[in-house]
Amino acid sequence: MNKPERIKTVFLYGVFIGYILLLIKILFLSRVSIFELFNSQRTLVRSINLIPFYSISEYISGSSANLKNFAFANVVGNILIFIPLGVYLSLFKNNKSVRIYLLFILVVSLFVEIIQGLLGIGSADIDDIILNGLGGWIGNLGYKSLLLLLRDEKKVHTAITILSAIVGLPVILYLLFMIKMRF
Question: How does DSSP classify residue 174?
Fold first, then answer.
C-alpha cells in the first residue's frame, strides 16, 4: 500500500470512528447524560415493543400534527443513521454478501435496543431494528451501485473518501460538537 492509499484508509477509518461516536451520542446520550445513565435515583421509564410495524402503524394512524412530525423524524432518522454503517462495512470488508452485512447490522441494532431497554433510555422497539436494517441495506446497495457504476474498487474508495470529506466529516463534526450534548 503506497502512502496516498494509506492516508486515504486512515482518513476513512477516522471518519468511521467519528460516525460510531455520533451513533453512541444519538442512540444513548440524546435523552440522558452519561452521568445520569448509572444514577440510581434516575427514574427508569421503559417502553418495549416486540410487535413488528406496531409503532409505525400507530404513527400513521395518529391524528396529531406533532405525532406525525415525530413519526416522520423517527422513521426517517432510524433509516438515515444506519446508511453510513452499510457503506463503511461494504468499503472495509467488500468480500461479504449482502446477507452477512444485513445480519451484522441487525445484530448491532438489536444490541442497541437491548441496551436502551435495560437502561431505560427511550424505547426498545422492533420497528427500530427493522428500520436500522433497512438503512444499512440501503447503504450496502449504495456501495454496490457505485461499484457497478464506476467498475473499479479504487475509484469507489476514492469517491467515498471524497464524499466523506465533503459531506460526512463536516456533518459528523457539527453534530458531535455543535449540537448540545448532555453531560
Answer: I
Q: DSSP code of 47?
A: E
| Of 20, 136, 2, residue with least CA distance to 78 | 136
Q: Which three cell numbers stand for residue 168?
A: 460526512
Q: pLDDT tens for the chain, 183 residues: list them.
A: 788 889 999 999 999 999 999 998 888 887 777 777 666 666 566 778 889 988 888 877 877 777 777 788 889 999 999 999 999 999 988 677 888 889 999 999 999 999 888 877 877 899 999 999 999 999 999 999 999 999 999 999 999 999 999 999 999 988 888 766 544
DSSP string of 123-142?
EEEHHHHHHHHHHHHHHHHH
Question: Comparing C-alpha atoms, which of 95, 86, 88, 111 is closest to residue 157?
Answer: 88
Report DSSP state, residue 34.
H
Alpha-carbon gap, residue 139 to 85, rounded angstroms? 7
15's grid cell: 471518519
- Nearest in space to 130 (alpha carbons), one of 75, 60, 70: 75
Interaxial angle between packed helices 98-119 and 126-150, expressed in degrees from 0 to 180 and rounded to the nearest 10: 150
Hey, what's the cell of 21?
Answer: 461516536
Roughly how many angstroms between the first and final C-alpha of the chain, as a whole number?
A: 41
